[in-house]
Amino acid sequence: MPEDRLLERLEKLEGIVETTVQMLPPLIQDLSRRIDGLRGEMQGMEAKLEGRIQQAEAKLQGQIQQVEAKLEERIQQVEAKLQGQIQQVETKLEGRIQQVEAKLEGQIQEVKNRLESLRQEVKAEINTAFNKTMLLFTLIGVALALFSLLR
């Protein structure tokens, strides 16, 4: 009896295995289809995400270019403004330098004129002193001549 039971059980198990083997291919095919479907969905999502990434990159690249253009424009404006201010300062300094040069030239000319005037005064005083000395020597000579005659 135990053998009969074992045979029965073996037959039942064979039946279960046969049923399972018959049911597995459709389940495997169904699972395979599901996996293929999920794979397709994943590829679609991947393509979609890749597209969005490319759009985001393009958008960011455009924004970067706009910012670069704005910065370049602003830099040029600042450079132009600074160049204008430098020109103004140079012009003012040049004018101021010319004023100082003119003032100094005037003062130099004034000093030269004063020196010339003083030179003329000293020359006149020397001439006057020389003439007085000559008169004095002449008087001494006349006095000596008179003393010589009177003796």
TrEMBL record:
SUPFAM superfamilies: Apolipoprotein A-I. It comes from the Bacteria. It comes from Thermus parvatiensis. The chain crosses the membrane at residues 133-150. This is Uncharacterized protein. Residues 28-132 form a coiled coil. Keywords: Coiled coil, Membrane, Transmembrane, Transmembrane helix.
